[in-house]
Amino acid sequence: MNTQIGTASASLSPTFDPHARHRSLERLEAEITELWGHLTAATARFLALVAEFDRTKAYERHGLVGTAQWLNWQCGIGPVAAREKVRVARALEALPRIAASFARGEISYSKVRAMTRVASPANEDVLLNVALHGTAAHVEKLVRKYAWTQRRDAARTAQGQHVSRYLSCFYDDSGMLVIQGRLPPEIGALVRAALDAASDFLRERETSLPTDENVSAETWSVAEHERRAGTRRADALKLLAETFLANGTGDGAWSATAERCQVVVHVDAAILPAEPAAAADEPHRCELNVGPALAVDTARRLCCDGTIVKLVETPAGEPLDLGRKTRTIPPALRRALRARDGGCRFPGCDRTRFTEGHHVRHWADGGETKLANLVTLCGFHHRLVHEGGFGLAVTDDGVLVFTRPDGSRISDAGTAPRERFRGNDSGRALETLNLSAGLTIDARTSRCRWLGERMDYSLAIEGMQWREANAAARWVAPPTPT
């Protein structure tokens, strides 16, 4: 028995290679790292296209509020991940060294995403050196530490500042309400926190604004940042006002249900239809009770889903008869509408709260207030349909048809071309794409260069701060326009 076993073992030994499995694992590692390099380079190209898409506001042709919403709709990327990709894409435009290394497949998206939270043209070379020679965990830790030093130094600088508190509101010549004020730091932080929370809730931040305001100021032009941030905060302020007026203080100490908390619009019924019935010599009143005149299209939008009170006046403006206050859309019908639609029905929009009912055919034009003639829209798209030139119709079989101002239809499935890039054969298609872009990527391109040495975060932070200080000293303020 022992002899037979020994003979069998001897017969197997010539064909057994103890290093074969080791070499096989090395090839597996090489294939994974090489493919990862190609994926990284393709991701960089993807973000460059996203930045161009966002910079040119291509999402507006679909009636969307931002690139993140388009990515969620057309690419299946979650809202949070989509907003982060837009943030990183726009930040990379001001970081040429990091962007170039990313495009060559040398550093991963995880590292780039972390670096763009604190990176600037002055300190990006320090961050890039850490990213090339450290792990993603090293980069994340460095970014957290550096961000903390920035907050600490800002707090020291802010000590002793004295600010006068005031807030003023007035209508300008165009009828816009102008709000100006200065708040102490702690009150300002409270207001900013409320505005940011409201902005996140409305998902206005989807539209290419980074989470960190400091980063956005560094990576975008000031004018672009202020325009987008101002638009977002205006919507957030509207939400805060609506919430307070609807709920009061929440403790019963003050209720917002009084008549004095209503926003009243006076509009002559004769001018509400799409084809006004008022003669030239008749009044064409359409204005706020306390404030300037409104566009008729704005009044039509407000009347879509508002409270209506019929008031009969004499030619001199004296009230003759005051009717009962009624909701344009009754509560029972509103519940049915909400159950049917679930949220905004505009293609690509994912908003489910703070929506409004819209009459496909306005009641002023003879449209009925019934489920078949109603559709749910968010405030942004409701305004687009009324004042933005976008159209909405319903076919005989109940299909909603949205059109752009030029008359072209917005398809529910978007307008992506039929030809799509699909990777296959372990990334051969990606390799071909990257080779055509002049990139040579192998198994070593994306490998981390860390050899196990201790990471000196203090040295890296000092280097970043020194470069930031030098850049600030060299900066010259632009001349003040005269």
Explain this structure.
- The chain has 482 residues and is mainly α.
- It has four domains: 24-155 and 430-474, no CATH class; 166-247, no CATH class; 259-326, no CATH class; 329-410, no CATH class.
- Helices cover 46% and strands 10% of the residues.
- It is built from 16 helices and 13 strands.
- The strands form six sheets. Strands 11-12-13 form a three-stranded antiparallel sheet, covered by helices on one side. The chain has a two-stranded antiparallel sheet with strand order 1-2. A two-stranded antiparallel ribbon has the order 3-4.
- β11 (391-394) and β12 (400-403) form a beta hairpin.
- α3 crosses α4 (79-92).
- The longest helix is centred in the first third of the chain and has 36 residues, at 20-55.
- Mean pLDDT is 75; it is low at 1-13, 159-163, 207-220 and 413-426.
Layout of helices and strands:
Blueprint: H1 2-12, H2 20-55, H3 67-74, H4 79-92, H5 96-103, H6 109-115, H7 124-133, H8 136-158, E1 166-171, E2 177-182, H9 185-202, H10 213-219, H11 222-247, E3 265-267, E4 286-288, H12 296-304, E5 307-308, E6 311-313, E7 319-322, E8 326-327, H13 331-341, E9 355-359, E10 374-378, H14 379-387, E11 391-394, E12 400-403, E13 409-410, H15 428-436, H16 457-474
Antiparallel strand pairs: 1-2, 3-4, 5-8, 6-7, 9-10, 11-12, 12-13
Helix pairs in contact: 2-4, 2-15, 3-4, 4-10, 6-8, 8-16, 9-11, 12-14
